[in-house]
Amino acid sequence: MGRVAGLTSEEARERLLAAAAEVFVERGYAGTATGEIARRAGLSTGAIYSRYASKAELLADAIKAHMPAELARLISDGALGVPVPDVVQHLGEELPHRPRQISAMLVEGAAAARRDPRVAEVFSAELTAHLGTVESLVTTAQQEGSVDPSLPSGALARFLLSVALGTLLTNMMDLAPVDDADWSTVISRFITAASPAD
Length: 198
What we know:
- Pfam families: TetR_N.
- Residues 33-52 bind DNA.
- InterPro entries: Homeodomain-like_sf, HTH-type_TetR-like_transc_reg, HTH_TetR, Tet_transcr_reg_TetR-rel_C_sf.
- GO terms for molecular function: DNA-binding transcription factor activity; transcription cis-regulatory region binding.
- Keywords: DNA-binding, Transcription, Transcription regulation.
- This protein is mainly α.
- The protein folds into 2 domains: 9-53, Arc Repressor Mutant, subunit A, CATH 1.10.10.60; 67-194, Tetracycline Repressor, domain 2 (Orthogonal Bundle), CATH 1.10.357.
- Helix content is 72%, strand content 0%.
- It has 10 helices and no strands.
- It has helices spanning 9-27, 34-41, 45-49, 55-66, 70-79, 84-94, 100-115, 117-144, 153-170, 180-194.
- Helix 1 (9-27) packs across helix 4, helix 1 crosses helix 7 and helix 8 (117-144) crosses helix 9.
- It is elongated.
- The relative contact order is 0.12.
């Protein structure tokens, strides 16, 4: 693809992140050259290095851009008065239907983090931020009385994030799909179990 002129800064960033996601998934972190990302985006390598100090930072931003946006929306929905269990039910029901590219980006990020300290740093920071968001959601639910306040919020948040990440990873595998109604039933049962005892 030739270079694309006349793009706004945000349009250029979006093109870079879309191209980065494609190349990282296809070639892995180690096998990805920033020049190839720039070529696919129709931009110069300078467009990458004017935004990112390293390939690790580009990978982290690509992961953030291609992760589901539901976590951020959860807090805003909660602020709008949507009951937290309803929000969690909806999020859980959507997990098996997330695009495979999101799962592939997570796998690539985790694999790269084992070999590259800078990737490990940015990947850990991203997961820590997500964990904080989930814990905030749990705390809100405990305060509103829909989650048992005796449950440790940090441990419950880690469990929920682990389920979400694990589901994204299993989406990549050639496992027989779980019936949507069965999946919804399991999520509902878990929410009920985490509710305060009558």
